[in-house]
User: What shape does this take?
Amino acid sequence: MNRYPDLSNTARARILCRLFPDQIPAVLEFIAQQTAALLENPAVFKAQHDERLFSFECLLSLAREVKISIHQGRCKDSSGLFISLFNGYRACYTGHLLIRYTVENQSGHERFAIAVRLLFRM
Assistant: This one.
């Protein structure tokens, strides 16, 4: 078994899928909605974007990649799709939306929020 610091983002996503398989479709829907909102009206989000790890153009590129992945994997296994969203630089974008999901949907999902915090915020 790997130590926690040695786990990749995809391994952490796989753990989350095993612990909360019923929660994953709702998270994917949230990610799809947020990505669509960003790509439909980027000017609104650009005004809110301050200097972060990536430029706004890079953020848009990651959002397009996530949108394509979700569109292509919609009818397949939701756990596999979720895990694939944490591969490479997409993990930065997807991880941010996962944390936002736990903040905005806390009622009834406290254990899921704790697991996300432990796996992705440490």
The CA atoms of residues 29 and 70 lie 9 Å apart. The chain has a mean pLDDT of 86. The chain has one domain: 23-120.
